[in-house]
């Protein structure tokens, strides 16, 4: 079983959205782009315990907080999920609600001929939905789940209940917010699900209650508590009949199943030894974050083995877990589930997925969509994993990307932005949410721009002086191109920086013993004329391209000493991101921020 299509309308930050999911996929994108909203929307439809939460919805679950329109009528939340890959047991259970899904067109078959359902690419499907609204009469929020086929004569649909949802086997593991509850015995916790699957609930709770009813608490007279309770009883009897408030005593809880579910806690050994030689145990919440996450994952694996046809949805498996464990988690969950859906910001997680399994999420003006990533230009599949973590991962995770022509610009522009921030009211690229991508050749700037544009990224590019043909291709491929007036970035530095800054940096290299030995004859000094100084420093920058020396140079400059091209480019990019300029270097319309 797997989710093939998800439609969302008016839920949280999503005004409308439609996604197609593969058997194994990871949702990526900038923070607050809608990844958690996607999983929460699926949980509203398929989560067995989700509707038992009160309230099911609140004011902030509606898009822009608008649950009533100007006319005072309700503005509903609608979510639709299409599930395919049904087992024989599931097909029998849902037999009255089966539709047919064409995997080639990613659509439901809506009419004759009936023979089309026999085609290889056509699968039985289950379409279910959730509707949530504000009930003006009750002054409360309500929600319901239902089958979307068939529709009754009166326009209503059959209820999609808790038992039906359990048949679907959807498991949603949030981030650490679930940790405190996953190992409890509350309704819907992971331990509770395991107990239900093993059919252990009824005898277990009765046995525990019987044991606790007989367990004495603080009855030793030396403690003084029993004496106080006896005094309370005597005082009460001066006001009420003797059979009232009789025999007060302590118990560990109120001895109800619901109370026990809340207070029973798993204890685990800490590794510390007590004086008597026994290992000290503490509540599981006192374990390390990574240990708790791993325990939760172990429970999920148990559930998958018990339920078989399971859909896993998991947020950020990388939290507090080392890279090798992240990889193991991905493969373990993928192997044990019919469908595995993740969100992540970890390169170690993302490199375990084929590009077709990486869904890049974007949202503009409330409209959400997901685009499957593909192999970046010039990257062969066998080199993909190596190149992905080194170059492309950060760009996939960010909403904005700055493409640099080569390594020198890749090092220099972030360094210059950080220096500007130190000196004035400027922002670094990290603060602006911009990832830097090294094209590694001027011929790759345009192809990478096209690739990132296909993923709905906002793209910037800095590059050397180009031929008219090359510049036209780059301008067409990126949102905001910035072309230097020099053919090489070293020339931008040498010809655009103040002579005082160049000499100061050069003398510092000599004093620190960092001047190249084979350039000893041209060692900079105060008597060297400006033309010779520029020549030797240009040679030094070129020969040390891979060492980040131009970045070091810019990091010691004052604003007035930096090349105007570097400063103006950084200021323009900040203005674009901050919304103070919308047409620097390009006439292309850029999607506004949500």
UniProtKB/TrEMBL annotation:
Endoplasmic reticulum listed as a keyword: no
Keywords assigned: Plasmid
Ranges of residues in domain OLD protein-like TOPRIM: 396-464
InterPro entries: AAA_GajA/Old/RecF-like (IPR041685), Bact_Antivir_Def_Nuclease (IPR051396), P-loop_NTPase (IPR027417), TOPRIM_OLD (IPR034139)
Residue stretches making up the Endonuclease GajA/Old nuclease/RecF-like AAA domain: 1-62, 217-349
Any Pfam family matching the protein: OLD-like_TOPRIM
Protein name as catalogued: AAA family ATPase
Protein species of origin: Paenibacillus rhizovicinus
